[in-house]
Write a sequence for this structure.
């Protein structure tokens, strides 16, 4: 087991050394095409590591004392892939923040890769420490899984309603650094510290590194509990986290220019955090199989990407048409309110429907009533939700009648519940 840990840590440092001393030797700008190539390479390494996980667990080489029963190769591989996908998805939020920080400090593009390299190296060390602490807490205090689950749900709502805007001036670490360290006002190449008048002086690039490091610690508070919702095995937690972090830098350079176009990715992250939080809270009552979790996370990510692409194309088509003039401020305010209302209803109703779908999969838990509540909320704004609500009501009546026949009686549907639903979502009566 120690050999496996040592080999994996060596692999991480070899990848970092190759990145710093071979691929990105010297200060240069990294183009989107090159970054996409390296992103594909890092993703390929992460996926190729899955069969390695299968082999070492199937052969019984890895098993951590004090954790769950020995995993089969298949179980370990699915947990690893799910954990890696969750961590890689959550790392997208880092990209938004990196873009804001680099724009705020006006960091030249050719120096950004150096900041991210050392930032990721620090993140590897900090996350390794936090993983060890998290594993020890869950092992000693089993109720911590509920704390982590609640934290993930709170984070989901925070991301939904407050966002994750970063103001470097309000960063406590930045304030401390500016107060106690001497700084130069201009960049000195890719150096974090330079010597001026015989004294060491920090450069603005050092401040950028401080913001990147402290921001990642805050993100780790969200992402570390998420991986413990997938698995409690320390090696799977560590390996999936590290391979997701290693792909963050190339992913930033690949997506930095177009990240704003993927407007629904953050909404996908909200649903993922909420789902993982619920999964953690239900882990002792009705555990969600890891295979289902993998499918849900992949589906939410795909929905965010596809939805963003469709929205972008619709906006391009709309921009080619002459805009309809807005008569006055009242009309503009009403238009903004309607759009905001649709988004809020979609998020709240969709969250309840997703929760009902999740619990409906679990044995002995009725999910249809919860889904009906979610669709009732959605039906106040969306015609397609009205149609689905009608179908769900009829399905619920059928289930009641089936249960009634088994018990020796039958419940007749109410007229308003059995009325056919029209194309416009209204009920037609004879």
């Amino acid at each position: 087991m120690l050999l496996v840990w040592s080999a994996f840590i060596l692999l991480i440092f070899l990848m970092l050394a190759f990145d710093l001393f071979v691929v990105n030797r010297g200060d240069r700008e990294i183009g989107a095409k090159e970054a996409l190539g390296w992103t594909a390479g890092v993703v390929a390494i992460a996926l190729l590591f899955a069969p390695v996980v299968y082999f070492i667990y199937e052969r019984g080489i890895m098993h951590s004392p004090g954790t769950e029963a020995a995993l089969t190769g298949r179980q370990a591989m699915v947990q690893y892939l799910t954990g890696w996908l969750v961590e890689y998805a959550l790392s997208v939020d880092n990209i938004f923040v990196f873009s804001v920080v680099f724009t705020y400090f006006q960091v030249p593009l050719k120096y950004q890769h150096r900041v991210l390299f050392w930032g990721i190296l620090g993140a590897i060390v900090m996350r390794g420490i936090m993983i060890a602490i998290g594993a020890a807490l869950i092992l000693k205090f089993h109720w911590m899984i509920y704390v982590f689950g609640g934290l993930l749900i709170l984070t989901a709502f925070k991301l939904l309603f407050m966002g994750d805007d970063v103001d470097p001036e309000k960063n406590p670490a930045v304030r401390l650094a500016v107060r106690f360290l001497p700084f130069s006002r201009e960049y000195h190449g890719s150096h974090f510290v330079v010597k001026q008048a015989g004294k060491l002086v920090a450069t603005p690039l050092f401040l950028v590194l401080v913001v990147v490091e402290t921001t990642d610690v805050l993100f780790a508070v969200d992402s570390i509990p998420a991986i413990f919702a997938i698995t409690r095995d320390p090696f799977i937690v560590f390996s999936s986290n590290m391979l997701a972090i290693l792909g963050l830098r190339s992913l930033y350079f690949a997506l930095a220019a177009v990240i704003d176009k993927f407007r629904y990715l953050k909404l996908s992250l909200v649903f993922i955090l909420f789902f993982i939080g619920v999964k953690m809270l239900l882990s002792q009552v009705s555990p969600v199989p890891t295979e289902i979790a993998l499918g849900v996370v992949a589906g939410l990510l795909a929905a965010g990407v596809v939805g963003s692409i469709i929205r972008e194309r619709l906006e391009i088509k709309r921009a080619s048409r002459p805009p309809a003039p807005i008569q006055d401020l009242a009309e503009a305010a009403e238009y903004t309110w309607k759009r905001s209302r649709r988004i809020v209803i979609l998020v709240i109703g969709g969250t309840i429907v997703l929760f009902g779908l999740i619990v409906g999969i679990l044995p002995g838990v009725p999910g249809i009533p919860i889904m009906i509540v979610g669709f009732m909320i959605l039906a106040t704004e969306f015609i397609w939700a009205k149609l689905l609500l009608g179908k769900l009501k009829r399905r619920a009546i059928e289930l009641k009648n089936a249960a009634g026949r088994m018990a020796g009686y039958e419940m007749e549907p109410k007229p308003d519940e059995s009325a056919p639903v029209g194309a416009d979502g209204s009920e037609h009566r004879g």
